[in-house]
Amino acid sequence: TAKKAGSGTYRFYDASLNASAARGLELLARFRQAIKADEFRLHYQPKVALQNFEIVGLEALIRWEHPEHGLIFPNDFIPLAEDHDLIIPLGHWIIKEVCRQLAEWRKRGITPVPVAINVSVKQLQDELLLETILSALKKYKLPPFLLEIEVTESCFIGDIDSAKSVLEKLRDEGLRISLDDYGTGYSSLSHIKTLPVYALKIDRSFIRDIRNDNSDAMIVASTVSLARNLGLKVIAEGVESKEQLMHLKVIGCDEVQGFYLQRPVSAEQIETILQKGKFDPL
Ligand code: C2E
Ligand code: MG
Ligand code: MG
Ligand code: MG
Q1: Are residues 47 and 116 in contact, defined by beta-carbon separation less than 8 angstroms?
Q2: What is the ipTM of this complex?
Q3: How far is the CA of 108 from the centre of ligand 3 (A)?
Q4: What is the average per-residue pLDDT within 100-126?
Q5: Which residue among 12, 42, 61 is best mutated to probe the pocket of ligand 1, counting the most ligand atoms within 8 A of its Cβ?
Q6: How many CB atoms lie within 10 A of CB 139?
């Protein structure tokens, strides 16, 4: 069963998807052809500066347009792809597709903003990651600052040195690195001290009750000032209301992402929004 989730997209809600190994196998079998069959789509969500509500970047978020099941969201297939090393070819497709899209926007006179790509642990271990990124940038004649990388702290559980060295190479090439879902999971302050990080993205679980839960409000405020004092940018994820937005603006958060301003939408839909260039949320 598929359930409508706004803006013509379908969220796949079959409980058996996770429960049943058979379903996993079915998806897996299909997955191997899905890249070739051009069934993956990137949706884009704006990152918005709280100072003036201008769009300062986008995040690319993958969806699978399954011929029978409709639109499948990443939490339902990225773990599967990870387990079977399919995340590597998918990751390469994502990098090339983002670069192709950026070049297309530029060709059509739309001022491109940096696009962030989510990169998982396995992808960070891929020997071809750096090469794939650099050759895609070169092929489409893009300056490296137009690509950003989002990693979670789970990337640093195992071999922190090799993860760090890959990120340093990317940083040295001119890409920005953000720490995604910041504050969840295996958080260590040494990560933000030793890693070549440009921004912290505060996980949306801390934003949800920021107006009512004093601990959440304190955690977010402390993270904002920590980031500020370390010279890092700070972004809040999952902003769903005007009250949350204003709260974050008042405490000095730099940027927001969330359904209140804009849900992730297709490249065509984001184009119109990019042309406007800013929001008027008040
Ligand atoms: P993430 O990188 O933390 O992305 C943010 C998720 O929050 C996205 O879910 C986005 O649609 C959702 N979101 C944005 N604003 C709001 C809001 O206001 N409220 C709520 N409730 N949710 C909001 P999505 O697209 O389902 O992606 C889930 C996760 O899947 C991502 O979390 C990321 O870890 C992973 N993912 C997505 N695309 C890719 C990709 O291309 N490659 C890899 N490796 N992972 C990806
Ligand atoms: Mg992300
Ligand atoms: Mg996140
Ligand atoms: Mg997340």
Answers
A1: yes
A2: 0.98
A3: 30
A4: 95
A5: 61
A6: 12
Q: 252 vs 34, 121, 208, 235, CA distance in Å?
A: 43, 31, 18, 10
State the distance from the centre of ligand 1 to the C-alpha of 62, rounded, in angstroms.
8
pLDDT digits (tens, 9 = 90+) for 182-206: 998 776 788 888 899 999 999 999 9
CA 44, CA 104: separation in Å to the nearest integer?
Answer: 15
In the chain, the percentage of residues whose pLDDT exceeds 70 is 93
Pocket of ligand 1 (CB under 6 A): 45, 60-62, 73-75, 78, 94, 118-120, 150, 180-181, 204, 237-240, 257-259, 264
The interaxial angle of helices 267-276 and 87-107, nearest 10 deg, is: 40
Rounded to the nearest whole angstrom, what is the distance from the C-alpha of residue 149 to the centroid of ligand 2? 9
Per-residue pLDDT, averaged over 163-179, amounts to 96
pTM of the model: 0.92
Q: Whose CA is nearest to atom 3 of ligand 1?
A: 181
Average pLDDT over residues 144-161: 90
The predicted-structure confidence for 35-94, as pLDDT tens digits, reads as follows 989 999 999 999 999 999 999 999 999 999 999 889 999 998 999 899 888 999 999 999
